[in-house]
Design goal:
The protein has about 450 residues and is mainly α. Helices cover about 75% and strands about 5% of the residues. Helix 3 packs antiparallel against helix 13.
Length: about 450
Amino acid sequence: MSEQARASFGGKLSAILVAAGSAIGLGSIWRFPYMAGENGGAAFLLVYLLCVFVVGIPVMLGEFAVGRATKLNAVGAFRSLSRPWRWLGYNGVLGALFISGYYYIVAGWSLEYMVNSFGQLYSSGDSFTSQFALFQASPRQAIYTVVFILLTHLIIVRGVEKGIEKASKVMMPALFIILIIMAIRVALMPNAIEGYRFFLKPDFSTAFSAETIFTAIGQAFFSLSLGMGCMVTYASYFKKENHLTSTSMSVALLTLLVAVLAGLVIFPAVFSAGLEPAEGASLIFITLPEIFKDMPLASVWSAIFFLLLTLASLTSTISFHEVLTAYFAEEHKFSRKNATRITSALSVALCMLTLLWHFDIDFAGIKLENISFFEIFDYVTANILMPLGGLLTCIFVAWFMKPDFLRNEITNYGTLKGRVYPLLRFALRYVTPLLIVYIFLKNLGVF
Ligand code: PHE
């Protein structure tokens, strides 16, 4: 596609909002609290913060540079710079497929909770734990998943500017406002202080275990949409005047802010309601209704929150849908419409596989019963494909490409000062890749 014909996002703010729209989603509001809950609370928060700065921002800049310089989909972008490196693009496409296999399901949960806020959620009197279990056992789960894929599909067909950009601009600011209101509300609940202690006072004896760092790096990649061709694809729609460094900093800070706000809402509520922070994937769907139920207009608040969670998820689902759509359209020469259809159909198929097929694993000493692709897709994307993609992106940008490549993109061909460039290059050459490799090996028990 020629440069003129290719779509692009509007101005500076649009670039930040769409990238933040991709980053901020279930990762910060659903996954971050439950990972923190299972991994020591404040200790996890501390390591996660470090990972965002040391690993997240450099990798994001590397991806931005590749995307904007080539103006192509993930596979095409790497291929056009060096043919063998197209495999790094395929890593992203695979990651986007795997993530599609379960993310829509969780997004569907939030859609159902939004609708059900006015249904029996607050009127039936059953515990939220058993309501969640009942919902998971019903066919409604599959229906909401498919509805979510359709919603994503509709935005993607509208194209880059009208669909993606418009959607992000409205949804993101609204999400911040409601999270702040909720954080203030939970501060007034009895026993909230226990939650703050759990979330903000680190226990250094657990903070630096290999597993905590491994999980935190995975979470940093997941929440910033990295190592998966997503920021490459989005940056291919950036304008040449966009300031990559400040865009990546803003995206990282906004994502952090949402994750911290989510923690400040969820943990005080968990302790106040006498629940377990290590509840796992169902955490927010059980604890948040506990907060709402004692508020005046419970259903309304609940519906607003789950609406915004749905919208935040939507700006993320469109971003990995776009990775696949751009790939099918540009690499396999499908029309954009057909590329969108193929991606949506694949997403439905994968999610149905995840929902319908449960099995046991008894292999190489690992025994697991009744598991589904949900855990496998999540684990493999966040803990393997994304860090691997990030690691290879560092090597590609800072070792394989000539220094000018990164410098030109960071300084917009000499028009910006690019003071961070030396630091960034140092991080991408040494600090970030070594840290990822070290943690990988350490977690495998090599050290
Ligand atoms: N960052 C998104 C979230 O946290 C998930 C995502 C990952 C989106 C990878 C695109 C690519 O919800």
